[in-house]
């Protein structure tokens, strides 16, 4: 009996080899457990490639320019990430930011409100826009894509009407309205105050999502809204609060946008919708909800800024820059599908 057992027992080496998962499976598990790794690799590769294509890409002046480009995208991307965590999407992010910027500027120039109060009015405008989006999704049960596609046109039209199609110059506003566009020197590089605000917001939003009951409810709703409801979570309130918080973040992005461009214009932030979604998705946020990190969105925003800046330095036309950003989205979603397939 013992001889048969010895004869039929598989070799120890083969059994161990059979139990060891293939390299691709291990990579898939690693990227599912640590979603920040993929964006970091893409960022490093982008920096290396564009530094080879353009001699002045890594210069202090150009790095400062990238931080200025990233700060608006990053802040709007934070709002987009919170919504994507609930398996939604916000196509009105850019329109809300522009509308809030115009409301902010008009409150200061036409109504004569002090700068801080005008900024608060703009943030309130963003929150109200977010509440409207949330109500359409929760109360009227519209898909987030359809609801925000509709409000995209509504908010853009309101901004155009309020401004009369004219640009409101930053020189006509209180100094605090353009303060986020100003910079200070750090290790020989000019760093904008808006970039510092972005880092602070990344820390605050990340803490709220990871260590508060609200953040846990947001993730639960994104994982399975019906199961979350059965556990006692008021899913409707959570969703509406998510859209309100996102709207306020778009309002903050509007304040930074005024500082970045030195004006409030209905034609500004034309690519903010695409860029904010790209930053979130490239950063590891799953369009199916429940998975994503704010730090990943920050890295994703850096990738978008590096791509647009590097391609511009390489002499690539704007339309091909948009083409490249679109490819980034497709690649990120395909990668997310591959990771999700392995986690099931």
From TrEMBL:
Does the record's keyword annotation contain Nuclease? Answer: no
From which residue to which does the signal peptide run? none
Pfam families, per database record: BPD_transp_2 (PF02653)
Grouped into one coarse class, the protein's main location is: membrane
The membrane topology of this protein is: Multi-pass membrane protein
Organism domain of life: Bacteria
Q: Does the keyword Lyase apply?
A: no
> Where does this one sit in the cell?
Cell membrane
Q: Which UniProt keywords apply?
A: Cell inner membrane, Cell membrane, Membrane, Transmembrane, Transmembrane helix, Transport
Query: Any coiled-coil ranges, and where?
Result: none
Q: Please provide, in alphabetical order, the Gene Ontology terms of the cellular component aspect for this entry.
A: plasma membrane
Transmembrane ranges?
A: 36-58, 70-103, 115-138, 145-164, 184-210, 238-258, 295-314, 320-339
What is the name of the protein in this document?
Answer: Autoinducer 2 import system permease protein LsrD
Source organism: Nakamurella leprariae
**What is the phylogenetic placement of the source species in the record?**
Bacteria, Bacillati, Actinomycetota, Actinomycetes, Nakamurellales
